[in-house]
Amino acid sequence: MVTNVTSFGRSGLYDWMIQRVTAVVLLAYTLFIVGFLLLNPDVDFQQWQALFANTAMRIFTLLLVLSFAAHAWIGLWCVTTDYIPMTGLRFLVQAVTGLMTFVYVAWAIHIIWGV
């Protein structure tokens, strides 16, 4: 049964939608960085630092990090539920994956915002 994507109950359709939206964010960020590097082939540290000092770029980078975390979490959750039949082991793998994802997001926030 297909349910509404905007419902509060989790469903496969919801996960599918999150995967697609986060993939678009990852693509947009990649295209932006590639475009920036093509337009500035001799980019130096000062230009790179100025780019990431811009608040809009920091927000865009934070959106990238959160999108990457959500995209990876859903993907790894699907893989572990499909290929690890033992509940205890699957829980352990998912718990470690969730913890690592949280640590990477916190670390990225620290790097981006210098907090």
Tell me what the structure shows.
It is a single chain. With 115 residues, the chain is mostly helical. The chain has one domain (12-113): 3 helical TM bundles of succinate and fumarate reductases, CATH 1.20.1300.10. It is built from 4 helices and no strands. It has helices at 12-39, 45-53, 55-83, 87-113. The longest helix has 29 residues, at 55-83.
Q: What value does the average pLDDT take?
A: 90
Assembly annotation: single chain
Strand content: under 5%
CATH C-level label: Mainly Alpha
**Uncertain segments:** 4-8
Overall CATH architecture: Up-down Bundle
CA distance, first residue to last residue: 45 Å
The rough form would be described as elongated
Task: Describe the structure in brief.
This protein has 115 residues and is an all-alpha fold. The protein contains four helices and no strands.
Outline the fold blueprint.
Elements: H1 12-39, H2 45-53, H3 55-83, H4 87-113
Helix pairs in contact: 1-3, 3-4
